[in-house]
Input
Amino acid sequence: MLKTWVVEDGSPYQILASFESLLERKHLGRKKLVTTHSTIGLVAEWPEVSRVLGFFSKASKPLGDSRVYRRITGGPPIDLREGGSYAAIVGEYPWSLRSLYKDLKPLMECFDEKGFHGGASRDGETVIGLTKLAKAPSGVLVEVLTNKPLEELVECLSKYYGGVESVGSIDPDLVPTKAADRLRSPEWLRLESRSYNIESVSANDEGFYVRFTAWVEEELIHWMEVEGNFYAYPPAHVLAIVGNVSQVPPSPGLEYEFLAAWSSFIDVAGINFEDVERAFRELLRKAGGDF
Output
């Protein structure tokens, strides 16, 4: 049984940050509101026409009148209409993100009986995001964003979790201000595109990909960025590992250090380590390295 709260009349920033309130509620087990091992969630009707990016998405399409937001979970971007719906579920899951994604397939099939491709329904109307949570041991966050109405979203959650119990509402003004402010900061949104002269992509049959772009001059990599519809934890560590490839020549040492850091510290789903390895080696080759 999934216990849920409703976020009413919240801004997109408040809705996307409100899972922080769920973490606070998980710590109230001693008051018998929820237990430590409960799976709890929140749902909300989406308030405006928006594009919501996955953590590693690029804002490359023309935006039109859409506002742009970036969520904490990976997966593909989605163009949401006013009246769409959102859910965030916080639970305990001790295994890998790859296993979690596989276990969520019955939930995805409720939104699209043909299943998902690259983290999105075949019609592009629903996406799923997932990551682990640093604040909760073995904790995971699953996000569902869909253009289906809230009633249909709750129906799918109820089928997957064996029922939904509505507990109450979350006042959006009580969502941690720091969390909402972080989601609106330019550093988080990362909407400014950078010119690049080298790129490499590795994709698989499940519709997931990882893409590296870089600016290279005279066989010196000045900077590198990562893009994709994959899932990874810790997401900020991925950006840090990629950001460390700066002002360096392509070399076997760089290859070893980058891939060793990724394989040691990053848990991924959608793509696998071999996809990352293939894309990074291709980038080094294009940068002038002898690989």
